[in-house]
Write a structure and sequence with these properties.
By secondary structure, this protein is mainly beta. It contains three helices and 26 strands. Helices cover about 10% and strands about 45% of the residues. The strands form six sheets. Strands 1-22-19-24-17-14-13 form a seven-stranded antiparallel beta sheet.
Length: about 325
């Protein structure tokens, strides 16, 4: 287990005695995670910070799961059978371990630390995710991006990118989507986005120039980290509204800290998120569910996976209604 993993394990057992708000501008909202099971009877537990009642999206980022570090010899690792997606892109980013990805586009790829895998499931795609036998410690994030109305029925796609790290004031930054610190990712997206991993040396402070049209979220993996003066503990996500030209991050620990910075212009469309689908109405979600249950060609077939597909849960008895972000206080 590396230095950051050791720091994270220690940080999760600590309680910060400092306050979480300083009154400085920009004002930071702190989103706390909830534990949820991921995928089927052999489900692993993940910490989910997005979506939640107080915030549906940050830019077009609509989903953030954070997991590990976990000893797969004890937990069994990740084993998610073939399952469908509509209206979104998946962004897989690992800190340690290795995951085998197979999808109905015919892609067979490995997710490795520091390497971006971005899958587009507009009209429909299916894929499986299984940690490999070489994995000892599994640790990373799984993120989703909502597709805008104009592109939400686009075709299947898959992109892979290995960003080169850059150093800025005691921080090592890997930009996997968008632009930051003079680096621009070549990976295309359907709305402007920012996605970057940052590792901060002990006590380091870095001030980053950011796009003022973007709102930003900082997900802390190992810390704590201060965002614009607000203390964020491991697994918490700090939200900063649009309008900022800079963001200051400070490592508030004596060990290296790690976090993921997300951003994009406010996503103004209201969406329905249910299970693995993003749509705009209850009827649309119900139709996608029925087509998955009936093995429709809409989602294709995942070749090479030894096992059954993941069945969809039952729809709720209430009507699924589109949601957006509540007005900011």
């Amino acid at each position: 287990m590396g230095d950051v993993e050791k720091s994270l394990a220690k940080s999760f057992g600590a309680t910060a005695a400092e306050g979480t708000r300083t009154g400085k501008v920009p004002d930071i909202d702190v989103l706390t995670p909830r534990d949820v099971p991921l995928g089927g009877p052999r489900a692993m537990k993940v910490r989910r910070t997005l979506p939640q009642r107080s915030r549906t999206t940050i830019g077009a980022w609509c989903f953030a799961d954070h997991y590990g570090p976990e000893d797969v010899a004890v937990t069994g690792g990740m084993h998610v059978p073939p399952h469908p997606h509509t209206g979104l892109q998946t962004v897989s980013w690992l800190f340690s371990g290795e995951i085998e990805h197979r999808d109905s586009l015919g892609v067979h790829a490995l997710v490795r630390p520091g390497e971006l895998n971005l899958m587009t499931g507009g009209h429909g795609i299916s894929h499986s995710e299984v940690s490999t036998s070489r994995t000892t410690v599994l640790h990373g994030v799984q993120l989703w991006v909502a597709l805008p109305e104009k592109h939400r029925n686009t075709g299947r796609d898959f992109q892979h990118h290995v960003p080169e790290p850059v150093r800025v004031d005691g921080a090592e930054i890997r930009v996997f989507l968008g632009s930051l610190a003079g680096v621009t990712s070549p990976v295309s997206s359907f709305t402007p986005l920012l996605g970057a991993e940052m590792v901060l040396e002990p006590g380091a402070t870095v001030t980053l120039t950011v796009d003022p049209s973007f709102e930003h979220g900082l997900l802390v993996d190992a810390g704590p980290v201060r965002l614009a003066g607000t203390l964020l503990k491991p697994a918490e996500l700090g939200f900063a509204a649009a309008g900022n030209t800079t963001l200051t991050l400070a490592n508030a620990s004596d060990d290296r800290a790690r976090c993921v910075l997300l951003g994009g212009p406010p996503f103004e469309e209201r969406i329905v998120m249910w299970w693995n689908f993003i749509g705009r109405s209850h009827e649309e979600i119900a139709r996608a569910r029925e087509e998955w249950q009936n093995a429709s060609e809409r989602f294709g077939t995942v070749e090479g996976y030894a096992g059954e597909r993941l069945p969809a849960p039952e729809l709720p008895h209430s009507i699924l209604r589109p949601r957006g972000n509540p007005p900011r206080r």
